[in-house]
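chain below, 454 aa
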Amino acid sequence: MTARPDHPTLAEATRVWARIAALSFGGPAGQIAVMHRVLVEEKRWLGDGRFLHALNFCMLLPGPEAQQLATYIGWLMHGVKGALVAGLLFILPGVVAIMGLSWIYAAYGQVGVVSALFFGLKAAVLAIVLQAVVRVGKRALRNGVMRGIAAASFLAIFALQVPFPLIIAVAALVGWAGAKAGLAAFRAGGGHSALGTAHVHDAETLLGEEAALPAFARRDALRAGLAALALWFLPVAVILILAPGSVFADIATYFSKLAVLTFGGAYAVLAWVAQAAVGTYGWLEPGEMLDGLGMAETTPGPLIMVLQFVGFMGALREAGWAQPYLAGTLGGLLTTWVTFAPCFAWIFLGAPYMEGLRRNMALSAALSAVTAAVVGVILNLALWFAVHVIWREVAQVSFGPLTMELPMPGSINWVAAGLSALAILAVFRLKLGMATVLAGAAGLGLALHLAGLV
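prediction:
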């Protein structure tokens, strides 16, 4: 048997978490793979069983699962301080990078060279979202019932304009009821399968096989969770009292609601954000939403960091301040605050009870149904992106209870269509990595601009 590694100090662990944060590109799948390689295979802080156990627990919570996984493992290693170090470091590079890019975009986004780079990124993002549909679908749509949930979810959001929270709530209820009824389609819980090539046994790692925790660890986690809830609600309450009806009040309340309902990953949530930010609040144009996702794809940190860009642009345009960039900065930081403060609260409040949660088969079945519904939601997002990338004009069409955004046939942008086709080919046929596809698409966008085609 391999000897267990020594327990690192918090300072040593901080350096490890900083390294993971610097490498956390490529969305949740890539970020989880990086954490597995470093924490399980290299450091052997925990084994495959504990790692996957923690990951499946994080899938039961609203919020970005990769960031919450880092927070939870940090808590296992060094308590509340370790959780804060791991969780904050995971998002810090993205906060800084997205804020800098938001300033550049607001100042120079219409400049030819910058616009051309984002033109190319839009095509790459479309291909990557389509890839997410396929990846999640392969894992989630295990039987006809799950495929039916996905189809119903797509129809509900695409043609019936059903709100995303209602879709998630109904899917969870269906999964829970199906498990309680003992239906075979709901027996296998959702979650991730094994990662990596060589299995690392829990007994050979620092944390071992046992999940028993001292009483003070549970007490400290509860206190930290309540503190995180207070830190979440306090700025929201202050803004609602001092600036009701302002764009900051809208940002605080909307993204707080989103933080409670962000099941299914960033791509699923972005379908709802796109509807609200573009259609309801008018903070962004459809193409700008794609540009923001391109920023998040090319910077470290959770993809949900795109919300900071949305908040930045909304406050920049709607605050009415004499210093719009200051308003945008505050709007972006407020968005990030109300997005991630709840993530820490869910981890601290739920972590001491994760063993019981994971054994709850009805809860696991609800997660499975939600994941299936998310496939339909992400497919809707992919089509929404495709319509706004490839066609210049879009019209809202109604047929009885059905209301859909459909492209105008004569407004197709053949350059954008061709670039999107190349990006899709690169992702699905050539199996190129995300960084290669994004860089290549941006480079082609610039080349097309220099050739006078965009």
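The chain has a mean pLDDT of 86. The longest helix spans residues 65-108.
thats it, cya
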